[in-house]
Design goal:
The structure holds 2 protein chains of 2 kinds.
Chain A (H helix, E strand, L loop, with lengths): L18 H5 L15 E7 L5 E7 L1 H4 L4 E6 H6 L31 E2 L5 E7 L2 H10 L1 E6 L25 E8 L1 H9 L3 E9 L11 E7 L4 E6 L4 H12 L7 E4 L15 H13 L3 E4 L2 H7 L6 E9 L5 E13 L26 E10 L13 H19 L3 H8 L6 E2 L5 E2 L4 H11 L5 H10 L3 E10 L7 H6 L8 E7 L5 E5 L8 H13 L6 E4 L17 H28 L6 E4 L2 E4 L5 E3 H9 L14 E6 L8 E10 L6 E11 L6 H21 L30 E6 L16 H18 L10 H17 L1
Chain B lengths: L4 E4 L3 H10 L3 E4 L5 H6 L7 E4 L9 E4 L2 E5 L4 H6 L1 H6 L1 H7 L5 H4 L4 H7 L6 H7 L3 E4 L3 E3 H4 E3 L2 E2 L7 E7 L3 E8 L6 E10 L2 E7 L6 E2 L1 H9 L24 H19 L1
Parallel strand pairs in B: 1-3, 2-3
Antiparallel strand pairs in B: 4-5, 5-10, 6-7, 6-10, 8-9, 11-12, 12-13, 13-14
Classes of the chains: A alpha+beta, B alpha+beta.
Chain lengths: ~800, ~260
């Protein structure tokens, strides 16, 4: 596309169209939806990490005021409903498919984590449902539980599922084992590292909610839900759970207050609400409270890894061997199997020319909440591991960490990695150069010395990341085990009066699609922003879609919109050619105006739309009336955003309190539609990454499986005063294979930042490694460990 | 929350009468602990007696060497009080750093000390300043008021009406906030009072306590150096995912020194 001078188009930081309603309290979230005759659901949840259900006595609950029904796993089974599924099948090294135990929407005979859904009470009011839920008597036979990811597959660990030996879901591998072993034989140095990627609890601002409705007149179900992908929810609820066929199930995801991945998935509660709506012939509403969210939203990360990097005498990386154990939680979840495999192992080349890489991943079940995709999903885990071991290599070899990275940068594109990806484009030197400049790297020693004079420890840390976004070429995804295609669809509809409605399958829940997509259309079709409406989130309005996750909305969803818009232009040219009695080949389109080349004859796109809907003077023999085009876009490749993050910290050695004094991020997202929105995405992503690195961490009691971090009193979310002002800039190499050149920016901050923070903290202290989060006590203890030998001298 | 009967008391006498006649009732001042507890169904009182509208519980008076703060006085009012800022600046600063702005505009002095959360800030001031807690029945020395985790010397039907804080020659409070909750993970209140140097530690143990070894050392020399080599014991300190007992013991030393330095 060429710049058209459109002040609202590509590259303009226009204010977000959706913010008027969000900032004035006019948003319409799932909990704002109230249907006539609505009843309320409350879930009875397991207080035990693992127990057999001997029996459920709901008689007392049923006798309580306002109670309409109590439903259990037995009722689900009697209605012959299916369970929740994992949409991706991973195969083990030996070729066997992963173990995918049944995941009923209400537990049938066993509960497997604290918070597991046992029964639901439907009542006239939410309070009545909650009161009655306490009166549901569940007779549990408590079983031993396993919580630790590292211990799950060890002999003697309790089994989460009796039919899954050693709790092993799969044992996956990727890469060339023999070549990697050979590389280690030739190494001058072998750098090894053990690390944990801490489990996180997503905590979007809006907790999950669902309203199920059933119209007995038409036999149609409607589910209003907090979803990032309503069509996928409809597909799973129809094809696997068996609520209703797709044409009899409408799924609406209205305004959604953040997801970070946790609302991609299809959960028990939404299935139960829509199913129960028919059982009680009343709309059924459920709104999670924050405590339920901590227990039952899918968690993220949770890896335990050992890695070894083979390096030659000059510092060139020869081979990387990674062995990871990844927790799945108690059940497989919508995307969970794919996260520590194809979204993780494939990213271990990073920005480097390492010729041989071999990765093994054991996925284990534990008696904890399911683990699934969370902002970055696999890529933060890969980046953290790689950028930590590269930093360790620099320290072990006594090399400057920036120069060691530079020595190993990939500089020829396209580049086929040893772990199945082909990077189309990138310029890693450019982002490193700019980041070093903005971070004032050359004068860091002076700042460190000045801090030392104040009794403070100052450190600097790098992270040079790459990620794969724009999920995904359907053919590739299918070959790797995906159960769905990963294209996106769009419909661009001109109305007779010249304004435009765009229907997209990419739901917006904080990303600002209603603005950026409108900017794309404004740039491409020359229509003012005010005359463009983006419609998403309703299977009854939007033709189809795979949803918003994996930073795919710009590159895949945006490309689908451009494809549909191109069809509009093509049809417009035919209409104008007919009206102007010219050849279609002579019709030019620019900035909303069709012109006959070399003449002053022209029509605006609004005039063309009017003619298409009032076809009095129109080529009806050759062309249908109307100006409304549909497109499906399947990407040719992933996109590869990359960049350099540099973190500078100052530590108070007396307390271990660590302050991030500067954080620099230079990212290459390809072309940028709205820089302000991209900055916002980067800010939020870095905040989440710093949260993981310094503050957040999910803790279960190792013995009982009780969630210790079950509220904000104990689960430490990042707050504004935990963060510095970020220094952010961009470099640009346009994506080569989509029509708009964008790569995606939604996850980069959370992917790039954690290793930069830990590299800075360990640099300041002068140690090799520290697991996240770098809490004051951990940092203080690490400082003590460096001082003890001296004290003993 | 479970159902309960709500009573809006208009006087201390009325509230005392209500609590005496409703043995399963709870007194509520700012409700900053009670309301979340009720919402989580962790408490099921038959009645809630609201003290927040009782005029006689409010207000700050300075008379001679004593600052008397009504039990119903908001943290924000204490923080903003010119009288408190002038008389005991450390107390105003402590109040201004409790919770967040919302908490400070609902939470009260009386509610905080009657609840005696081990991580609360005010108990540090009450003990270190040698304050006296006044109830509808008697006067209780600050040293005798806090008896254990969420336990006080208050009888079931006894209501805190005010706290008398003697002016200190110098005082300072240093707080190490829990990163998640922002309650005091450790708080050290050091005061040079008419009766000597007093060091109260909150957040670290089951309830506020005086750090006797530090008081002894500081009584000889009110300098940070006087605390070199004085180590707080980790015995009986709290230990959780945020901080072990050892780390809390270490922080006690660091914060007490910083408080001494800040005394000037």
């Amino acid at each position: 596309m060429t710049a058209t001078g459109n002040a609202e188009g590509f590259g303009a930081s226009v204010k977000r169209k959706e913010d008027q309603r969000f900032l004035t309290g006019k948003g319409n979230y799932t909990d704002d939806i109230n249907r006539r005759g609505q009843s309320y659901a409350h879930f009875v949840r397991s207080p035990h990490a693992h127990a057999r259900i001997r029996g459920i006595d709901a008689s007392a609950a049923l006798a309580m005021p306002g109670v309409l029904t109590v439903l259990t796993g037995q009722d689900v089974a009697a209605d012959k409903l299916g369970g929740l599924i994992c949409g991706w099948t991973i195969h083990s090294k030996d070729g066997s498919p992963m173990k995918a135990p049944a995941h009923p929407i209400l537990a049938l005979d066993e509960v497997r984590f604290v918070g597991d859904h046992v029964a639901v009470v439907i009542a006239e009011t939410a309070s009545q449902a909650k009161d009655a839920a306490e009166a549901v008597a569940v007779d549990y036979d408590v079983l031993p539980a396993v919580v630790s990811t590292a211990d799950a597959a060890k002999p003697g660990s309790p089994l989460v599922h009796a039919d899954v030996p050693s709790n092993l879901c799969y044992q996956w591998e990727l890469g060339d084992k023999a070549a990697t072993e050979a590389a280690f034989k030739n190494a001058a140095h072998i750098v090894s590292l053990d690390l944990v990627n801490n489990r996180l609890i997503p905590n979007p601002m809006e907790p999950r909610a669902a309203v199920g409705d059933y119209d007995s007149g038409t036999g149609t179900f409607t589910l209003f839900t907090t979803s990032q992908n309503p069509h996928l929810a409809r597909l799973v609820l129809s094809a696997f759970v068996g609520i209703a066929p797709e044409h009899k199930l409408r799924v609406v995801a209205p305004d959604v207050g953040g997801g970070f991945g946790s609302k991609i998935f299809i959960y028990s509660e939404e299935a139960v609400c829509v199913w129960a709506a028919k059982k009680v012939d009343r709309p059924v509403k459920w709104t999670s409270d924050r405590s339920e969210a901590f227990l039952s939203d899918a968690h993220g990360r949770d890896h335990v890894s050992h890695a070894e990097l083979a390096v030659d005498a000059e510092g060139r990386f020869l081979g990387l061997h990674v062995r990871t154990t990844a927790a799945m939680g108690a059940y497989l979840h919508t995307f969970s199997a794919a996260v520590p495999t194809y979204l993780y192992g494939t990213l271990l080349a990073g920005q480097y020319t390492t010729p041989a890489i071999y990765v093994e991943v054991d996925a284990v079940f534990t008696n904890t909440a399911p683990v699934d995709a969370y902002r970055g999903a696999g890529r933060p885990e890969a980046t953290y591991l790689l950028e930590r071991i590269v930093e360790c290599a620099a320290r072990d070899l006594g090399k400057d960490p920036a120069e060691l990275r530079r020595l190993n940068f990939i500089r020829k594109f396209p580049y086929a990695t040893p772990v199945a990806l082909e990077y189309d484009v990138g310029d890693f030197d450019a982002s490193m150069d700019r980041a070093l400049e903005l971070a004032e790297y050359s004068t860091f020693p002076a700042r460190k010395a000045e801090a030392a004079r104040r009794g403070k420890l100052r450190g600097i840390g790098f992270s040079a990341y790459i990620e794969a976004c724009g999920l995904a070429p359907s053919r590739v995804a299918g070959a790797l085990g995906a159960g769905v295609g990963l294209f996106e669809s769009a419909q661009v509809r001109f109305n007779p009066t010249g304004n435009v409605q765009v229907f997209t399958g990419c739901h917006s829940h904080g990303q600002g699609h209603e603005t950026t997509y409108a900017q794309l259309v404004s740039e491409h079709l020359g229509v003012s922003l005010d005359n463009i409406e983006i419609i998403h989130g309703d299977t009854a309005q939007v033709q189809y879609g795979l949803g918003t996750y994996g930073s795919r909305s710009g590159s895949v969803g945006g490309s689908a919109i451009i494809k549909a818009a191109d069809k509009i232009i093509a049809k417009g040219r035919k209409i104008v050619a007919y009206r102007m009695e010219a050849s279609v080949d002579d019709i030019e389109f620019k900035a909303g105006v069709f012109k006959v080349a070399g003449t002053d004859k022209q029509m605006t796109i609004a005039e063309v739309a009017f003619n298409a809907y009032v076809p009095h003077n129109y080529p009806l023999e050759e062309l249908e009336p109307g100006l409304d085009e549909n497109a499906f876009y399947d990407p040719q490749n992933f996109t590869f955003p990359s960049g350099t993050h540099i973190c500078e910290v100052e530590i108070d050695p007396e307390t271990g309190v660590t302050q991030i004094v500067k954080f620099t991020a230079v990212d290459d997202f390809g072309r940028i539609i709205n820089p302000m929105i991209v900055h916002g995405q980067v800010h939020g992503g870095i905040a989440q990454g710093i949260g993981q690195a310094m503050l957040e961490g999910c803790h279960y009691d190792e013995e009982t499986g009780q969630l210790i971090t079950g509220s904000f009193m104990d689960y430490c979310m990042p707050r504004a005063d935990d963060l510095p002002n970020f220094t952010i800039d961009a470099t640009e190499t346009a994506c080569t294979h989509n029509p708009i050149g964008v790569k995606g920016c939604g996850e980069a901050g959370a992917i790039g930042s954690p290793p930069a923070v830990i590299n800075a903290v360990t640099d300041a202290i002068g140690i090799r490694h520290m697991d996240m989060p770098a809490t004051p006590e951990r940092v203080w203890r690490a400082i003590q460990s460096t001082r003890l030998p001296r004290a003993a001298e | 929350m479970y159902e309960f009967s709500y009573h809006k008391a208009s006087s201390v006498a009325e509230a005392a009468g209500l609590i005496a006649s409703h043995p399963d009732a709870k007194l509520m001042s700012g409700g900053q602990t009670l309301i979340p507890t009720l919402k989580q169904r962790l408490a099921a009182p038959s009645d809630v007696i609201d003290l927040s509208k009782i005029a006689e519980l409010k207000g700050i008076k300075v008379a001679g060497n004593v600052v008397t703060i009504g039990a119903g006085t908001l943290h924000a009012e204490v923080a903003a009080s010119k009288d408190v800022q002038a008389a005991i600046p450390a107390l105003a600063a402590l109040a201004g750093n409790i919770g967040d702005a919302q908490v400070r505009n609902r939470g009260t002095l009386g509610g905080s000390i009657a609840n005696n959360d081990p991580a609360a800030d005010y108990p540090g001031a009450v003990v270190a300043l040698g304050a006296t807690v006044i109830t509808n029945k008697r006067r209780i020395a600050g040293d005798d008021f806090f008896t254990g985790m969420f336990e006080t010397a208050l009888e079931a039907d006894e209501i805190v009406t005010a706290v008398e804080f003697p002016k200190a020659e110098k005082a300072n409070y240093q707080k190490f906030p829990n990163p998640a909750s922002r309650y005091a993970m450790v708080g050290a209140f050091v005061a040079k009072t008419a009766s000597g140097v007093r060091v109260a530690i909150t957040g670290a143990g089951p309830t506020v306590f005086r750090w006797n070894d530090a008081e002894a050392a500081l009584s000889k020399s009110l300098t940070a150096a006087a605390l070199d080599g004085v180590k707080a014991s980790a015995d009986n300190l709290n230990s959780d995912i945020h901080a072990s007992a050892d780390y809390r013991a270490h922080l006690i030393g660091v914060l007490a020194k910083r408080a001494v330095v800040a005394l000037g």
